[in-house]
Specification:
- The complex is a heterodimer of chains A (224) and B (200).
- Chain A contains 8 helices and 10 strands.
- Chain A is α/β, with parallel strands linked by helices.
- The two termini of chain A are 34 Å apart.
- Chain B is globular, with a radius of gyration of 20 Å.
- Chain B is mostly helical.
- The two termini of chain B are 31 Å apart.
- Chain B folds into 2 domains: 11-121, no CATH class; 127-198, no CATH class.
- In chain B, helix 3 (37-54) runs parallel beside helix 6 (85-108), helix 7 packs across helix 8 (132-162) and helix 8 (132-162) runs antiparallel to helix 9.
- Classes of the chains: A alpha/beta (224), B mainly alpha (200).
- Bound molecules: adenosine-5'-triphosphate and magnesium ion.
- Residues 39-40, 155 of chain A line the site of magnesium ion.
Chain lengths: 224, 200
């Protein structure tokens, strides 16, 4: 469970998130908001990639301020741009990257299972930078999944993808066993989520079921 | 020389990465003291036949090696003008032998094995504060990102040509911005992939 209390965040002296108190327990949580409203900042607070200027974020009781590495093992993160997330030259090596230190047979078994799960079997020795955008995003998800996090945060996972790849990622997000927190401008993706947060100018202005949240978001978009 | 692994099961593929790297180092050193053109030509032939042993198609071999041709020709021309045709031929053959063998090692060894071998070799330097894992990571990232940055450079050049700029050093600015932004994102991604925990 991820809990935020009294969270504020400022870059230099501009406050971009203010007064957030939340308990995130649902299996599928969506986050929407206009460009620059603070969504990515919010997401990065959840696994300690950013430490809040004030307040605390805890994951299963671990404070992101003190237990960054432990928190990041529980909360995985998939970024918008797959190109920067792939670290190793080939597909299998990239998935194995986070498993350093485990015995080789165990690593191989985990890599194999993860690649199969994300439709990348047969691409083991393929150069990672030559995959299509959708395959790269699948690889990014596979590489995070092998670390066995209990929650995965996605920051606009489908923005750069075509319709077919978007569909694939959407299906994976729906069926994967981990909890998901998904930031997206793609409202259809969030339509059957358990909970949707609307962020506007650094504040949570709605926190409800998708339909009502999306209505609120559309109203904000029309009046600003 | 930043070619990728060409998977296979030949004896060359199965030899340990450390052995291959050390052999490469030794052979390269010896080659640079050889003067006899017949011996060097023999070496070239031998290096070429090792590709057959490894089962690597000649096309892959050629593709991997063409990048160094211009520089080699430049060296040869300089030697010819300054020393003799014999020196030019010798330097050409030496470079060819070493490049072919180096590429052969890259083609028959997964990057991760190569990195593990380097990390192990650097292990004793840990006492002096060196972190072999970091060196290994740096090598992996270099191999991974050289083609990506080359691609970025191509895109930036294209965008400029589309706007009617023929060639301008100004293309370095957007390339630098993109590269730095990528480095920033990459640092974050490494954090998210739990790198810090394995490096400590
Ligand atoms: N590293 C930074 N330094 C300074 N200001 C920043 C930084 N990152 C974000 N900001 C600012 O904080 C505000 C919120 O940014 P954030 O990236 O969280 O928005 P977002 O909701 O994710 O937007 P988008 O939909 O465009 O991705 C923006 O005004 C942005 O300019
Ligand atoms: Mg964002």
């Amino acid at each position: 469970m991820i809990e935020l209390s009294g969270v504020r965040h400022r870059y230099q002296d501009r406050e971009v998130l203010g007064g957030i108190d939340l308990r995130l327990t649902e299996r599928r949580i969506g986050v929407v908001g206009l460009n620059g409203s603070g969504k990515s900042t919010f997401a990065r607070l959840l696994n300690g990639l950013l430490i809040p200027s004030a307040g605390t974020v805890t994951v299963d009781g671990l404070d992101t301020r003190r237990d960054g590495p432990k928190v990041r093992r529980r909360v995985g993160f998939v970024f918008q741009d797959p190109d920067v997330q792939i670290v190793m030259p080939t597909v299998a090596e990239d998935v194995a990257f986070g498993l350093r230190g485990l015995p080789k047979p165990e690593v191989n078994a985990k890599v194999k299972a993860a690649l199969a799960e994300y439709g990348l079997s047969g691409y083991e020795d393929h150069a990672a930078h030559l995959l299509s955008g959708g395959q790269k995003q699948m690889l990014a998800m596979a590489s995070i999944t092998v670390l066995n996090p209990s929650t995965i945060v996605f920051d606009e996972p489908t923005t750069l993808l075509d319709l077919r790849n978007r569909q694939r990622i959407a299906d994976r997000i729906k069926t994967m066993p981990q909890d998901a927190i998904v930031i997206s401008h793609d409202l259809d993706l969030l339509a059957d989520f358990d909970r949707v947060l609307v962020i506007h100018e650094g504040k949570i202005v709605a926190d409800c079921l998708p339909e009502a949240a999306i209505e609120k978001y559309v109203a904000i978009a029309e009046t600003t | 020389m930043l070619g990728l692994h060409h998977p296979g099961h030949s004896p060359l593929h199965r030899s340990p990465a450390g052995v291959k790297l050390l052999t490469l180092l030794a052979v390269s050193t010896v080659v640079f003291f050889l003067e006899d053109l017949r011996i060097l030509a023999g070496g070239l032939l031998l290096a070429g036949s090792l590709y057959a042993v490894a089962g690597i198609p000649w096309r892959t071999a050629v593709r991997q090696s063409t990048a160094v041709v211009p520089v080699t020709l430049l060296f040869m021309a300089a030697q010819w003008v300054l020393v003799s045709w014999h020196a030019a031929a010798a330097i050409g053959l030496r470079i060819a032998v070493v490049v072919l063998l180096a590429n052969l090692v890259t083609l028959t060894t997964p990057t991760s094995d190569m990195i593990t071998a380097v990390e192990r070799a650097l292990g004793p330097l840990r006492r002096f504060g060196l972190r072999p894992e970091r060196v290994g990571l740096a090598i992996a990232l270099t191999i991974r990102f050289v083609p990506v940055i080359a691609e970025q450079a191509r895109l930036v050049r294209q965008a400029q040509r589309a706007r009617g700029v023929r060639f301008s050093l100004a293309f370095l600015t957007p390339l630098l911005v993109r590269t730095l932004r990528m480095a920033d994102g990459l640092g974050e991604a490494l954090d998210a992939r739990g790198w810090e925990s394995s490096a400590q």
